[in-house]
Design goal:
The chain is an all-alpha fold and 95 residues long. 57% of the residues lie in helices and 0% in strands. The N terminus is likely disordered.
Length: 95
């Protein structure tokens, strides 16, 4: 079952819940704007485009949140540390 990132349970007692839309609603709006901006033109590789646009900032913020600790970052993201390192390298977030 998918997680609803708008729920207050996702935040520690030190953090305030953002007053923004759930992540899924924000993504939906962005995809709708993307198609609208195409003005009838054909798109290709949209799935890869969206994954790339979402994955890099996700990795960056999770790495910042874990203060650069890759093991903790991998745990936060539910990834194997090796997989995390591969993705970080692919996006030039580490050497």
């Amino acid at each position: 079952m998918g997680e609803d990132f708008s729920e207050s349970a996702q935040y520690s007692h030190h953090e305030q819940m953002p007053s923004t839309l759930p992540l899924s609603a924000s993504v939906e709006q962005a995809v709708r704007r993307y198609f609208s901006a195409l003005e009838g033109e054909t798109s290709s590789d949209l799935y890869e485009l969206i994954l790339t646009q979402v994955e890099k900032p996700l990795l960056l913020v999770a790495l910042e949140h874990s203060h650069g600790n890759q093991s903790k970052c991998a745990s936060i993201l539910g990834l194997n540390r090796g997989t995390l390192r591969k993705k970080l390298k692919a996006y030039d977030l580490i050497d």
